[in-house]
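sanity check this fold:
=====
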Amino acid sequence: MTKIIYIDGLACEVTKKRIKRINLRIKEPDGRIVISAPYLVTDREIIAFVRSKRSWIDDAVRRVRNRAAAHPEASGPAEKEARRADLKRRIAARLPEIERRTGLKCSGWTVRDMHTRWGSCNTRTNHVNFSLMLATRSDIELDYVILHELVHTVVPNHGPDFYALMDRFMPGWKSIRRAMKDN
């Protein structure tokens, strides 16, 4: 059961679940505050938790709303399909060039309507998925995500080897990632 708790002017959707700790999420695109809490956690404990995270919440809500304003959702199915077609065209043009330049290869790729990540890589099959959200991003940001997922075809985790390859193939990748997180 979900209920709304108002905490210092913030409307928080709270759901009690069979979990071990309190989880806090800010939902796209409107910046809703969603909390999952163990059954035995009291409302008073939830309120204290939210107050302890207030500055992070305010920053996260601002970031989510700014991102939504800068990169609006498609207004309907026709616009969504037009964005998908355009993104597929852009990936088809850029991916082979990045593969050629780096020597990294994927077995295939798909554009999916993912809302929580820019891309993913199945490290067993080397198949890469790209988020439809990339349709509103710049070419350099698209190149960053393509490279990130291609690096996962040889390094499945985000360890030192992964970052060494990112640095080798795209020295300015950290500033691109930061810009994507900020908007």
Notes: The mean pLDDT is 94. The helical segments are 43-52, 54-70, 77-102, 139-151, 160-169, 173-182. The first helix runs from residue 43 to 52.
